[in-house]
C-alpha cells in the first residue's frame, strides 16, 4: 500500500479471505476496513493516520485494507462508491461507516466506543458481585467506573442489563436515555435501549390474558401496542409490523404518533439487508405528518 510500520494488526483482504479476515475476526474485536485506491490522494494522506492509530491501540483494533481497484466485487457488496470509505465491523456486521478523508480526531472518535478499555475489567467483577447477591456493591462498582471512564458504553449497558434482570425496566430506560447522544449510538447499547422500551410497553400480564382482552376489545390501541411489543421481543418483526400498520390507520392522532415512534424503533433493530426495512420506511413515508 503505502509506507507503513510492520504490524500483525494490519492486513490486506481479497475476495477469497475477506470473510475470514473481517467477519470472523470481528467476533473477537473491532475490525476497521479501509476501502482505498492508490489513485486517490485522500486515501494516501489518510493511511499514515490509520497506521499510527493501529499501532497506538496495540492489538485492540484490526485494520484490513481493501484495494477497490483490485477487489471491485467487495466494494460493490458493501455499497462503496467512493474512496476513502471506512467501515467498522463488529460481530459480523457493519456498525459504523465514514466516507471521505478523516483526520486523527475523527478516526479516534470512530473507534473509541468499540475498542477494549481498561475500565472493561470492572464488568466481570460487577457481574460476579451481582451473582453473589451483593447487588448494591455491583451497581456501585459500575457507577464508580462510569465516573472514571464516561466514554465506555459497556459500563452503563452492563448496569442497565442488571437493572433489567431485576425487572427494573423503567430505571434501565431512564439510565440509557440520560446518556450523551453519541454514546447512545453504540450498537449494543442502542439495541438494548430499544428493546427495553418494548419490554416496558409489553406489560406484565401473560400472553393468554392479553389475548383474552383483545378478544373482548380487539381495537383497543393500548392492547395492540402491547401485542406489537411482545412480537418484537420474540423476534417476530413481521407480525409486529402488521400490528403497527393497523395502529397507523387509527383515527386518533396520538395513537398514530405512538405507532410511528414504535415503528422507528423497530427500524433500528433491523439489519441493513432486511427486506422489512423497506416496508417500514414506506409506512413511515406514507404516514409522515
Descriptive keywords:
Serine Threonine Protein Phosphatase 5, Tetratricopeptide repeat; 289 residues; 5-stranded mixed beta sheet; alpha/beta; Glutaredoxin
Q: Beta-sheet strand percentage? A: 5-15%
Structural class, please? Answer: alpha/beta
Radius of gyration: 22 Å
State the fourth-level CATH superfamily of the largest domain. Answer: Glutaredoxin
Please tell me the overall pLDDT: 95
Count of DSSP H/I helices: 15
Helix percentage: 55-70%
Give start-end ranges of low-pLDDT stretches: none
Determine the N-to-C terminus distance.
Answer: 50 Å
Name given to the CATH architecture of the largest domain: 3-Layer(aba) Sandwich
Shape: globular
* Total individual domains: 3
Q: Write down how many β-strands occur, each being a DSSP E stretch of 2 or more residues.
A: 5
- What CATH calls the topology of the largest domain is Glutaredoxin
Widest beta sheet: strand line-up: 1-3-2-4-5
Largest sheet: 5 strands, mixed
The arrangement of helices and strands along the chain is EHEHEHEEHHHHHHHHHHHH
Outline the structure in words.
This protein has 289 residues and is an alpha/beta fold. It has 3 domains: 10-111, Glutaredoxin; 118-201, Serine Threonine Protein Phosphatase 5, Tetratricopeptide repeat; 203-286, Serine Threonine Protein Phosphatase 5, Tetratricopeptide repeat, CATH 1.25.40. Helices cover 58% and strands 10% of the residues. It contains 15 helices and 5 strands. A 5-stranded mixed sheet has the order 1-3-2-4-5, sandwiched between helices. The radius of gyration is 22 Å and the shape is globular.
